[in-house]
Amino acid sequence: MNEKILILDFGGQYKQLIARRVRECNVYCEIRPHTVSLEEIRAYAPKGIILTGGPNSVYADDSPTCDAALFAMGVPVLGICYGAQLMAHKLGGVVKTAPSSEYGHTELTVDVRNTEPKAGSGSTGCAYDSALFDGLRGRSVTWMSHTDYIAACPDGFTVTAHTDKCPVAAMEDASRGLYAVQFHPEVVHSEDGFALLRHFVRDICGCSGDWKMDSFTEDTILALREKIGSGKVLLGLSGGVDSSVAAALLSKAVGKQLTCVFVDHGLLRKNEGDEVEAVFGPKGSFDLNFVRVNAQERFYIKLAGITDPEMKRKIIGAEFIEVFEEEARKIGAVDFLAQGTIYPDVVESGTGAGGAVIKSHHNVGGLPDHVDFKEIIEPLRQLFKDEVREAGLKLGLPESLVRRQPFPGPGLGVRIVGDITAEKVRIVQEADYIFREELSKGGIDMSRGQFFAALTNMRSVGVMGDGRTYDYAVCLRGVITSDFMTAEAADIPWDILQTSMRRIIGEVKGVNRVVYDLTSTPPGTIELE
Ligand code: XMP
């Protein structure tokens, strides 16, 4: 088993980011709720522990806390923000509430001797050699977000950094392996944040960096083979990255014991159904049973005249399950139902780590009721999205599939405002294809967010040739986002927008107007519905 770092969750919004950063250091980690017992922690055998931030104050009665014995386990601990304050509080230091919060980019001055000399840093009047800041810069910008602060360190600790407003921006007792930082090293705004985290997990905790995707795929294939034995596996393949990588892993593990059911609900992007079939179908390079269900008509009939966005989502979801179940019944009882659940789904759904439920994700809990199976297998449950992509490439999936932009489950159903018809689907598919083609030609990196065309429900008057038109307006949308919860409209070069507009109106029948959506998220959502 890999070397592991344990991240204890005290309610911080950046817990996933901390985990992400640790994984970027090729070190495996998992987020667990702060309520896990010391016995569970010992059994987990982490090489290091990170305490996350959180919105509470250590003095409030109902604040999340931990057993002080955690700090005497002989395992290095790094407390971040609330985690730092908790460490101070539990070990006899003083935490106070500041009259005003310290928020945003803040210059950090490191008060130790062994930081890399930097012109004008002037920070090293102290004789102390820090283990945590060893080799980092004497001054750097960090991201702060706190009201409480550590006013006095516990016995045995040394203050290793401060800011204008924060007397203890970092402290440590290296002899006990205890480190605390008030700032957030996990966010990109903290200039030396990643270097600090890397130094903590690799050097201080002594992790060698054994979490690599090629060993993950090899180990997982062997483990799946052992678990599945001669059993049958059923997987719903959407053509998205997660289910495709799950299919590739399972196919390498058990070949034809796997059946993948791909439901084309008629709301996919142009050519997408055929692309999925080219990879996983009989002419593709994977050994599995591939069942494509062309259910377009069924979905269009069910959706006819429905305009309410949530109703559309529900109908698409329910029909999807129904089609899937029909196919499953044809296959008969299976031993395993496989799903492409990934780690953020587990954390967001609050099912694995006991964290807060932010949104209940479609991959978790959205199980068919009438499929006869004994057990669920989720081979990607431990992976972040970029790790899934890397695993996909290692397994030989084409780059175009692995780098695919996220696409909502209800597909173009939430990109057509108002009721859905086959004609509207055709319009949005064609327009979307042209837009993405022009973006590719223009060298726009679409992996930085989502770029697509949607169809507004507006028809307006235009003129083409010598004739009057009364046609639909296509909306082009491009957003830059890393978390898909907040987003900014992409600054797409004018000539790309112009060429896209000209081509869409010229080539797509039924469109006479093209608009670009400038709305950020919030207040707008990424999808139009
Ligand atoms: P919104 O539109 O809420 O989208 O800003 C945020 C992210 O979620 C995707 N999305 C969905 N994904 N089922 C999904 O599987 C849905 O119903 C759904 N609605 C939105 C959207 O593409 C974006 O990445």
What small molecules accompany the polymer chains? xanthosine-5'-monophosphate
The proportion of strand residues reads 15-25%
Number of domains: 3
Q: Could you tell me the number of beta strands?
A: 18
Largest sheet: 9 strands, mixed
Question: Please, what is the CATH homologous superfamily of the largest domain?
Answer: Class I glutamine amidotransferase (GATase) domain
In whole angstroms, the N-to-C terminal distance is 44 Å
Instruction: Give the strand order of the largest sheet, numbering strands 1, 2, ... along the chain.
Output: 2-1-3-4-9-8-7-5-6
**Do you know the CATH topology of the largest domain?**
Rossmann fold
Show unreliable segments: 351-365
Q: Give the mean pLDDT.
A: 92
Helix content: 25-40%
CATH-derived architecture of the largest domain? 3-Layer(aba) Sandwich
Provide structural commentary:
The chain is α/β, with parallel strands linked by helices and 529 residues long. The chain folds into 3 domains: 4-204, Rossmann fold (3-Layer(aba) Sandwich), CATH 3.40.50; 213-402, 3-Layer(aba) Sandwich (Rossmann fold); 415-517, GMP Synthetase, Chain A, domain 3 (2-Layer Sandwich). Helix content is 31%, strand content 24%. It has helices at residues 15-24, 38-44, 82-90, 193-204, 213-228, 241-254, 272-280, 296-303, 309-331, 343-348, 385-394, 399-402, 422-441, 494-507; strands at 4-9, 28-33, 48-51, 77-80, 94-110, 139-152, 158-162, 170-173, 178-181, 233-237, 258-264, 289-294, 336-338, 375-377, 449-464, 467-480, 488-489, 511-516. Strands 2-1-3-4-9-8-7-5-6 form a 9-stranded mixed beta sheet, with helices on both faces. A hairpin with a 7-residue loop joins β7 (158-162) and β8 (170-173). The longest helix is centred in the middle third of the chain and has 23 residues, at 309-331. It starts with a strand and ends in a 13-residue tail after the last strand.
